[in-house]
C-alpha cells in the first residue's frame, strides 16, 4: 500500500507541476524539511535548506512573471518542457523502494506525461484568454493556475488518493476540451 500511496502523491504533485513548475517542488521541500515527506535517497537534496531557498526564489519569479503581459507567453514556452522534467523529478523522488527500471519508466510516463498534459491545458487556456480578451484576463488565468498548483500540491500530500482522482477528472476535462478544439462537430 505504501507504494500505491507514493504513486498517488507523485501523480498529484506532477499534475501540480503542470500548473506551476516550482510550486510543487517548494511544497515538497518544506514537507521534507519538516519531516512530513520521505524522499527517495537520490532526491534527499530536495529537502535541504539550499534547495528550499532556490525553490522559493524560483517560485516567486515564476509567479511574478505570469502577471506580466507577454512575459506569460514566454514563460509558457519555457514552462512546457520544464513542467515535464519537473513532473519526472517529482514522481521519481516519491518512489522510494522500486526497481530502477520500473521507477524511471513510471516517472517518465506518469509524472512527465501528466505534467505535460496539464501544462498543455494551461497553454490552451492562456491562448483562448489572449485571443478573446486581448490578454486582459490573463492575470485571472494566472491566479487560477497558481491556486490550482498550490491546492493540488497540498492535496497530494494530505489526501493522495483524492488528488489522484482529481487528476483523472482534470485529465478528462482537458482531453474533452482538446478533442472538441481539434475535432469540431461536423455540420
Describe this structure in a few short sentences.
With 187 residues, this protein is mainly α. Helix content is 79%, strand content 0%.
- H-E order: HHHHHHH
> Strand count, sense and closure of the main sheet?
none
| Poorly predicted residue ranges | none
Give me the number of helical elements: 7
Q: Structural class of the secondary elements? A: mainly alpha
Number of strands: 0
Q: How many domains make up the 3D coordinates?
A: 1
Approximate shape: globular
Query: What gap, in angstroms, lies between the N and C termini?
Result: 50 Å
Radius of gyration from the CA trace?
16 Å
- Mean pLDDT, to the nearest integer, reads 90
Helix fraction, binned, reads: over 70%
Proportion in β-strands? under 5%
Assembly of the depicted chains: single chain
General description of the model:
The protein is mainly α. It has one domain. It contains seven helices and no strands. The chain has helices at residues 2-19, 23-33, 49-65, 71-94, 100-133, 138-158, 160-182. It is globular. The model has no long low-confidence stretch (mean pLDDT 90).
Helix-strand layout with pairing:
Elements: H1 2-19, H2 23-33, H3 49-65, H4 71-94, H5 100-133, H6 138-158, H7 160-182
Helix pairs in contact: 1-4, 1-5, 1-6, 1-7, 2-3, 2-6, 4-5, 5-6, 5-7, 6-7
Label this structure with key terms.
globular; 187 residues; mainly alpha
Amino acid at each position: 500500500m505504501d507504494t500505491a500511496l507514493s504513486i498517488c502523491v507523485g501523480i498529484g504533485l506532477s499534475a501540480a507541476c503542470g500548473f506551476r513548475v516550482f510550486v510543487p517542488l517548494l511544497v515538497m521541500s518544506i514537507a521534507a524539511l519538516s519531516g512530513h515527506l520521505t524522499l527517495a535517497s537520490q532526491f534527499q537534496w530536495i529537502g535541504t535548506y539550499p534547495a528550499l531557498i532556490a525553490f522559493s526564489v524560483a517560485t516567486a519569479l515564476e509567479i511574478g512573471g505570469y502577471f506580466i503581459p507577454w512575459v506569460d507567453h514566454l514563460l509558457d514556452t519555457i514552462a512546457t518542457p520544464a513542467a515535464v522534467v519537473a513532473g519526472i523529478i517529482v514522481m521519481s523522488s516519491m518512489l522510494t523502494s522500486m526497481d530502477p527500471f520500473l521507477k524511471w519508466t513510471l516517472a517518465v510516463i506518469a509524472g512527465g506525461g501528466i505534467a505535460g498534459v496539464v501544462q498543455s491545458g494551461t497553454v490552451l487556456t492562456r491562448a483562448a484568454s489572449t485571443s478573446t480578451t486581448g490578454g486582459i484576463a490573463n492575470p485571472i488565468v494566472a491566479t487560477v493556475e497558481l491556486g490550482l498548483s498550490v491546492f493540488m500540491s497540498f492535496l497530494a500530500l494530505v489526501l493522495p488518493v483524492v488528488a489522484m482522482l482529481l487528476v483523472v477528472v482534470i485529465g478528462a476535462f482537458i482531453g474533452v476540451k482538446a478533442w472538441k478544439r481539434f475535432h469540431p462537430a461536423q455540420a
